[in-house]
Amino acid sequence: MHWVPSADDSNVTKPCLEGHATNRPTGPELARQDLRTGLYHLWDPRYGPRLGFCPRWNSPCRALMPDPWYRVPDTYLGPPAGAATVPPDQRCNTYGWPLYVERPIGPLPRQWPARGKIPRWYVWWRLYELQDGRCACCATSPATIDHDHRTGEVRGLLCISHNAQEYLYLNGQRACTHARPHCFEEYWNSSPARELHWTQVGQAYHHSADPRARSHSPAQP
User: Fold this and answer.
1) Are residues 39 and 138 in the same domain?
2) Per-residue pLDDT tens over the stretch 72-122
3) Residues 76 and 172 in one domain
4) Between 20 and 30 A from 191 (CA), which of 44, 134, 157, 207?
5) Whether residue 141 is found in the same domain as residue 203
6) What angle do CA 102, 103, 105 make, to 5 degrees?
7) Domain shared by 149 and 55, yes or no
8) The whole model's pTM is what?
C-alpha cells in the first residue's frame, strides 16, 4: 500500500509509522517527591523531572531550584514511586499525570468473588498488578481501561497514546505495511484481561458469565 498525502487526507488510510515500535516508552511511569515542597513531579530516568506547564514548579518549586533551574540534583528528590499511585493532592500540576484510582489496602483476590457489578477500583488495580503498573503496549503509566466496543470484552490498561492509536488501527484509519504480527495484533489476540473474562456494559463491569452482561453486551457485527 502506498500513501500519497493530499490537501485533504482526513479520510485516507495512513500507513503505519511505527512498525513494531509500539513497545517503546512514550512517557514517564514514575514520580519523585520534591523533599522541600512535598509535591511529586513526574520523573523519567532518561530526562529527569517533567517540568513543563507546571505553575507550582514555577512558583514555590522554581524559587528553590539552583541555576539553571531545570537541572534538579537527586539530593532534592525522594526515591522513585509509581506515578499512578500518587494522590492528586500530592501531585504538581504538570500535564500528563496518569489516572489515579483509590484502592483499599491489602492484597487483591485473583477474581472478584461476587456476581453483579465488579467495582471499578478492583478492575483497575487487578489489571495494574497484572501489567506491572504499565500500559499493555509500552512502558508508560496506564491511563484508561480499554475494552472492545463491539463485544464489551475488557482487554487491559492502555496509556493515552496507545488508546488513541489502537482505535485508529482497529477502524482502518491506519494500516500496517510491515510483516505480521501487525501493530496491536498481539494485544487484541492475547490481552492481559482475557483470562479474567470481564465485560464492560456502559460504565459498569461484570463477569462475562453473568446473565446481565450477556443480555446487555453490544451485538456482534
Assistant:
1) no
2) 567 778 998 888 889 999 988 766 788 888 888 789 999 998 888 999 999
3) no
4) 44
5) yes
6) 135
7) no
8) 0.69
